[in-house]
TrEMBL record:
InterPro entries: Na+/solute_symporter_sf (IPR038770), Put_Na-Bile_cotransptr (IPR016833). Keywords: Membrane, Signal, Transmembrane, Transmembrane helix. Residues 1-20 form the signal peptide. Belongs to the bile acid:sodium symporter (BASS) (TC 2.A.28) family. This is NTCP7 protein. The keyword Transcription does not apply. The chain crosses the membrane at residues 30-48, 60-80, 92-113, 125-147, 153-176. Coiled coil: none annotated. One of its GO terms (cellular component) is plasma membrane.
Length: 202
């Protein structure tokens, strides 16, 4: 929601042209697109929770397929647009910037959650590193389409998000073994330090 305010300001700063955003329309559309389905899902879940626990539908596979379809259709819409003017060098620069931003965010959140006076456990740190830097297409693309409805360069604006989401999946997959070994060793070290010392017999 902060992006609704920050994005036009950034466009004004970098492009030097005026821009206006219909906040009432955007918030109402976002509410109907994001919040209402979430509320309906939570209400329905209360009544069919027992049935879901018995049947165990493959929601994980379904959500992965839906997400894959969203990524695929968004990629198709973006690069099939004749107005998109993105050369290979610019695309490589964007990929490099996004990977750098992601690595910086993950490194900063790791430092923040492991500082000396931190009360976070190693498992908390892992959750913070991955969750706080996460940005999903399922929310980002609808927000872009609502905020920039009718804008001819919408496909170009979508490119960083299209790269960010697959990049975070790739980075997460590469970092999982390292993060897992760190978490296990850290948990073992904490257990050893918390064990009571045996009394010394004189």
């Amino acid at each position: 929601f902060q992006g609704i305010v920050i994005t036009p300001l950034l466009l004004l700063l970098f492009l030097g042209s005026s821009s206006s955003v219909p906040f009432t329309s955007i918030f109402s559309q976002l509410f109907m697109t994001v919040v209402v389905p979430l509320i309906i899902g939570q209400i329905v879940r209360r009544y069919i929770k027992d049935w879901l626990e018995r049947k165990k539908p493959p929601f994980g596979a379904i959500s992965s397929c839906v997400l894959l379809m969203i990524i695929y259709t968004t990629f198709c819409d973006t690069f099939a647009n004749p107005n998109i003017d993105l050369d290979k060098f610019s695309l490589i620069i964007i990929v490099f910037i996004i990977f750098s931003v992601q690595m910086s965010f993950m490194f900063l959140t790791f430092l923040f959650s492991t500082r000396n006076n931190s009360t976070f456990t190693p498992a908390d740190t892992v959750a913070i590193v991955f969750c706080s830097t996460h940005k999903s297409l399922t929310l980002g693309i609808p927000m872009l389409k609502i905020v920039f409805a009718g804008y001819e360069y919408l496909s170009l604006i979508s490119v960083p998000l299209l790269i960010y989401h697959p990049a975070q999946i790739l980075l997460g997959s590469l970092l999982v073994p390292t993060i897992k070994s760190w978490m296990v060793s850290r948990q073992k070290a904490l257990k050893l330090t918390r064990q009571p010392k045996a009394p010394v017999k004189v």
